[in-house]
Amino acid sequence: MELSDVHLDYPVRGGGLLRRGERVRALVGADLTIAPGETVGVVGESGCGKSTLARVLVGIARPTSGTVSHRGRELWAMPPAERRAAIGAGVGMVFQDPATALNRRLTVHRLLRDPLDVHRRGTPAERDARVRELLGLVGLPAHAADALPGQLSGGQRQRVAIARALALEPALLVADEPTSALDVSVRAQILNLLLDLRARLGLAMVFVSHDIQTVRRMSDRVITMYLGRIVEESPAARVTGQARHPYTRALFSATPGLLDPIEPIPLTGALPSATRPPSGCPFRTRCWKADGRCAESMPDFRDADGETPGGHRFRCHHPVAAEETTHQLVAQATEAKERSA
C-alpha cells in the first residue's frame, strides 16, 4: 500500500454563519509506503490525523487529492466494484471499540461468515469450516460461534473483530487503537495475539495508538503525526532517544519510565486549530526551537545523517542533534518558556 501527497479536508459541521465554508485539514501531504510483512506504528496527540490516515488506507475515506495505490494500482481510479473487491480482500481493519464495531444482533458465526458470503469465497461448507478456523486462530472456543457479542467479554469481542478482519486473508491489517477500550489486564493478551498473527500469517500491519511505548514494541517503523502532517519517520529502535523532530522527542518524553523517570519536555500552548493552522511549520507555536524561518515555510523531508534515504527522515528547520539527551532538551525548553513569559 502506498500513499502519495494525500490531502483530506472535511467541512466544519455546525458553528453558525461565521464558520460556514471552513474545512478541517485532516491530512496534509501524507506520503507513506507499507512494505509486505512490515508493521508501521502511528503516534501523535488526539486530533492529529491518525484515525483519518487509517480510514484512507482501508478505503473508507476518499482523499481530497493525492493517490492511494494498492498493489501498484490507484485505488480511486478503479471501478467501484473492483475497488470494493480489492480492498475487501486485501485489507482488514480492527476498530477501536468492538462493542460498537460488531452488530449486537448477529451471532459470532454470522459475523465471521458475512465477509465470506459477500465475497463468495468457497462453498457453504467451506465457509463454515473457515469460521471454525478463524475462531481457533484468535484463541476462541468453537462454541463461541453461537454467542451474541453482548454475551462475550471485551477481550473476546475484540478477538472476534480481529477474526472478522482476517476472514478474507488480507495482506495488510490496520488496527486503530485496538486496545484502548479494553481493561488493562486484557490489553497485553490482545497485543500478544496481534504479534503472533503477524508472525504466523506474514501480515503487514498499521498500528495506531496513544500508547507510545506499545507502538514502539509492536512496530518496525514509527511515524509521528502533528496536525494532519507526518513530521517524522523513524526505525522503532531509534524513536525514543534518537528522534530528530522536537515534537517526537517531546511526545516520547511524556511517557513515564520506571528505571529512568524524567520530567516531560514542556511545550507552550495547546494544539492549534485544524481549520486555521499556523503558517509554515504547524508545530512552531509550541516549539522551543522555533524562529522566523519556521513561520515562513514548512520544511521538506530530510534524511538523518548516516541513514539510508527513507530509513529515518524528518521535517524540521532546527532538528534535535543526534547526541542531545532528553535532560538537555528539558532544560532548553524550560529556559525558552521562561524567556517568553
Automatic annotation (TrEMBL):
InterPro entries the record matches: AAA+_ATPase, ABC_transp_ATP-bind, ABC_transporter-like_ATP-bd, ABC_transporter-like_CS, Oligopep_ABC_C, P-loop_NTPase
Protein name: ABC transporter ATP-binding protein
SUPFAM superfamilies membership: P-loop containing nucleoside triphosphate hydrolases (SSF52540)
Ranges of residues in domain ABC transporter: 12-252
Annotated GO biological process: peptide transport; transmembrane transport
Protein family membership: Belongs to the ABC transporter superfamily.
Gene Ontology molecular function: ATP binding; ATP hydrolysis activity
Keywords of this entry: ATP-binding, Nucleotide-binding, Transport
